[in-house]
Specification:
The chain has eleven helices and 21 strands. It is α+β, with helices and mostly antiparallel strands and 410 residues long. It has two domains: 268 residues, 3-Layer(aba) Sandwich (Aminopeptidase), CATH 3.40.630.10; 118 residues, Alpha-Beta Plaits (2-Layer Sandwich). Helix 2 packs across helix 4, helix 4 crosses helix 11 and helix 9 packs across helix 11. The chain is elongated, with a radius of gyration of 24 Å.
């Protein structure tokens, strides 16, 4: 692999000089609770720190995204670093907002780590993006293309913040998603779709069930059909097999001595680009038809789940509960630039991979914008009670982000 240029070495040294600053910023961000829809305090901190770090422009937009800009002109060739500010509930994580520094050995990691909810998913990466941009500003580099760092809202609830930027923001020339990749390069992920199937029956007193139609029982052939269909879903050569599984059930009325007249199950479906929404709905309707052939009393309806999202700014929008799949070929210029940058900066051979979970990358990629992923966290820590991020990886990612931005924007 090629050695770093003199400029790239200066950039790496500048980031290293600011190691303690990066760690403190990550700790400060982790110490702020920022559940989906409640990111206001963190957005204020991010925007304030961006200003202090020398960003040329900083704003909080209509939906609450904190967006900072360094250099360049208002043109569609900008590079965007994208990281979400929200996180899932802490669950059983002890002291989830401590942001403390601990030895990583208890997590199976080497060196020191920052511990707390969203350290790996993904406040560490967002902090690294901010410091990377500031390092370029400190070196007084004249960026011909804009560098945009976007701290976005509501990623954990199907990505309203990034949807907004993809639809209404300036169209960038490339997007880097900072979700966990263990310092490798991610090219995409399967999509995530929520579907509800409801069977309708007739309520009656449970002491005389023959007087009604039990909607719960009428769901049984539907569930059997779903299990059968799930074994026949298509695969993608890079993203793997699509999946379909029933995960929730609700009854109405949910009363011990009353036959339910409604039974609704929720499905979690992970789809590949060759298994589109229309085909998913068609297959599920076929399941319902087959169930009705087995039992004429089956009366079922398939619906894509929807959710109404509210931002802390007051902005509201109803969306379908889905995050589409995406995949970038490894030959894509941005993917090649990302990998070569990682290899040179970290002096090792990185690899291309795909995420097991869904990210905001799809909203940009599906508009034809080159989009890849690179982040310092490990997938195994995301949403877990062991949420943490390696300090060495945190600093390494900031070095890569800074050198990449210089290569792309100068």
């Amino acid at each position: 692999m090629d050695p770093l240029s003199n400029l790239e070495s200066r950039i790496v040294d500048e980031v290293e000089r600011r190691r303690s600053e990066l760690v403190r910023l990550t700790q400060d961000m982790v110490r702020i609770e920022s559940l989906s829809g409640k990111e206001e305090e963190l957005a204020k901190l991010v925007s304030e720190r961006m200003r202090a770090l020398g960003f040329d422009q900083v704003q909080i937009d209509e939906v609450g995204n904190a967006v900072g800009v360094i250099g360049g002109k208002a043109e569609p060739s900008a590079l965007m670093f994208n990281g979400h500010m929200d996180h899932v509930p802490p669950g059983d994580m002890p002291d989830p907002y401590s942001g403390e520094i601990r030895d990583g050995s208890s997590f199976g990691s080497s060196g020191q780590v920052v511990v707390g909810r969203a350290a790996s998913d993904m406040k560490g990466a967002l902090a690294a993006m901010m410091v990377a941009g500031s390092a370029l500003r400190s070196l007084s580099l004249d960026l011909k293309k804009r560098l945009v760092v976007a701290g976005v809202v509501l990623e954990e609830t199907n990505g309203l913040g990034s949807r907004y930027l993809a639809e209404k923001g300036p169209r960038p020339g490339g997007v880097i998603i900072g979700e966990s990749t263990s310092l490798d390069v991610a090219l995409g992920h399967r999509g995530s779709i929520g579907v509800a199937i409801t069977t309708q029956g007739v309520s009656c007193h449970a002491s005389a069930p023959e007087r009604g139609i039990n909607a719960l029982y009428k769901m049984i052939p539907v569930l059997e059909g779903i299990r059968k269909t799930a074994r026949t879903l298509p695969s993608h050569p890079a993203l793997g097999k699509s999946s379909m599984v029933a995960t929730t059930i609700s009854l109405s009325p949910n009363v011990k001595n009353v036959l339910p007249n409604l039974c609704t199950i929720g499905l979690d479906i992970r789809n590949t680009p060759n298994f589109e929404t229309e085909e998913i709905v068609r297959r599920l309707n076929d399941v319902v038809k087959e169930a009705k052939m087995q039992d004429s009393e089956v009366n079922a309806k398939v619906e894509l789940q929807r959710r109404r999202l509210s931002c802390y700014t007051g902005y509201e929008r109803e969306i379908e509960a889905m995050t589409p799949p995406f995949y970038m070929e490894p030959e894509t210029p941005l993917a090649q630039l990302m990998k070569k940058t990682v290899d040179r900066v970290l002096s090792r051979e990185s690899r291309f991979k795909v995420w097991t979970f869904a990210t905001d990358g799809c909203f940009f990629a599906n508009q034809g914008i080159p989009t890849v992923g690179f982040g310092p966290g490990e997938e195994r820590f995301a949403h877990s009670s062991a949420d943490n991020i390696s300090i060495e990886d945190l600093v390494a990612s900031a070095k890569v982000y800074a050198v990449l931005a210089a290569s792309f924007c100068l």
